[in-house]
Structure to design on (420 residues):
């Protein structure tokens, strides 16, 4: 009896925790963003030596990569001139039909300063928040494609749910065949494209892009490539395993899209 | 006072380690639960009330830097604290082997509870969760625990906690 009396404070706290968990008081969840904001500087400082060491260790490969990127840059500059011409022509034609341009986004560059503390979700913490114009629900991209969306915003930091998170769902389509489905994350960090018709035209290697449905992710952002095709339980629809084009485990900088 | 400061600083070090480890050692998709090791260590130096406080702070820290259900980690740490408080009397504090086994077991308990929270929102197969998240996390956490225990014990001795 004495033994249980001693453990009573713990049991009581546990009971209170259950009540708080069930009640979902917003005040508690609101308290966590200032905490993340307050440690952002510490995280930046702690990350700094690791980044500097990486720069030194990978100097040789980075030099070769910079040469490659220079030649790529020259090629893309030429291509851009051609594309600019096409864009202007497109704008002129669109204005004739009174279309609203879909690329009115400003991009906020943010540095990843921390990763999710749990293995059950995929998210990162970045060093830009409300002060930089970041809002919850904004789409997050890198040069390689879609990375995720902003789910929590503090004054100086934000949390980004990556597309590999089990709670993430992105309306997507296969670029080649225009078949539409939903890309969701898994606990293993892979992506799955669900709800495709059984007779849909899918091939391994097909590119998956955002379809723009739902309004969070703009249309045309690259999500990944299909590597495996299967049929869902019951045989009513197909699902595919998708490899994200963005290396989500190696994110260092991201771009947050803000209107 | 020094004792509580030690508790707070150790927990803060645990969460910093947790956040930075996976960012800098990215090939490991599954990261060890550093905070759980710190938490288990501190439980051995706490009474019942302190254990509850340590569990709440550790859970709050973990919840704050995660996008899961807020409060889930507070609950998980409190359950672990109740279990540890019940059984720690049978474990000699200085026996590293027993404590390492304890880390593995508590990590499994924490994994199962986490799975229950994930299951409340999503349909996730138990086998994929067990073999791809729960077991690797428990193994990694157990693997790093001797070094962490050694470091924390040295600090605890140095500052006479």
């Amino acid at each position: 009896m004495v033994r249980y009396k001693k453990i009573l404070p713990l049991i009581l706290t546990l009971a209170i925790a259950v009540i708080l968990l069930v009640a979902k008081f917003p005040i508690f969840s609101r308290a966590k963003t200032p905490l993340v904001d307050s440690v952002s500087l510490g995280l930046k400082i702690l990350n700094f030596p690791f980044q500097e060491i990486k720069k030194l260790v990978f100097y040789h490969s980075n030099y070769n990569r910079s040469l490659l990127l220079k030649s790529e840059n020259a090629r893309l500059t030429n291509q851009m001139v051609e594309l600019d011409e096409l864009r202007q022509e497109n704008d002129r034609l669109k204005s004739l039909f009174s279309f609203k341009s879909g690329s009115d986004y400003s991009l906020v560059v943010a540095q990843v300063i921390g990763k999710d503390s749990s293995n059950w979700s995929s998210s990162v913490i970045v060093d830009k928040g409300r002060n930089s114009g970041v809002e919850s629900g904004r789409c997050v991209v890198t040069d390689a494609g879609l990375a995720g969306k902003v789910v929590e915003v503090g004054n100086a930091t934000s949390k980004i749910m990556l597309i590999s998170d089990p709670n993430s769902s992105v309306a997507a389509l296969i670029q080649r065949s225009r078949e539409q489905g939903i890309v969701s994350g898994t606990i293993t960090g892979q992506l799955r494209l669900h709800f495709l018709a059984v007779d849909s035209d899918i091939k391994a290697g097909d590119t998956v892009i955002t379809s723009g449905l739902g309004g969070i992710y703009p249309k045309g952002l690259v999500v990944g490539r299909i590597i495996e095709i299967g049929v869902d339980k019951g045989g009513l629809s197909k699902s595919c395993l998708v490899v994200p084009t963005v290396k989500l485990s190696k994110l260092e900088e991201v771009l947050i899209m803000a209107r | 006072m020094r004792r509580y400061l030690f508790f707070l600083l150790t927990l803060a070090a645990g969460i910093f380690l947790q956040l930075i480890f996976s960012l800098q050692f990215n090939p490991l998709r599954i990261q060890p639960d550093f905070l759980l090791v710190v938490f288990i260590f501190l439980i051995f130096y706490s009474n019942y009330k302190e254990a509850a406080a340590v569990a709440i702070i550790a859970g709050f820290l973990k919840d704050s830097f995660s996008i899961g259900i807020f409060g889930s980690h507070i609950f998980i740490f409190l359950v672990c604290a109740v279990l540890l408080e019940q059984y720690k009397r049978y474990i000699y504090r200085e026996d590293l082997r027993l404590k390492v086994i304890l880390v593995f077991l508590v990590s499994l308990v924490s994994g199962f509870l986490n799975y229950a929270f994930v299951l409340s929102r999503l349909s996730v197969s138990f086998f994929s969760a067990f073999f791809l998240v729960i077991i690797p996390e428990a193994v990694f956490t157990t693997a790093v625990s001797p070094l962490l225990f050694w470091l924390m014990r040295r600090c605890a001795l140095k500052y006479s906690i």
Observations:
- The longest helix of chain A spans residues 59-96.
- Chain A has a mean pLDDT of 83.
- The first strand of chain A starts at residue 106 and ends at 115.
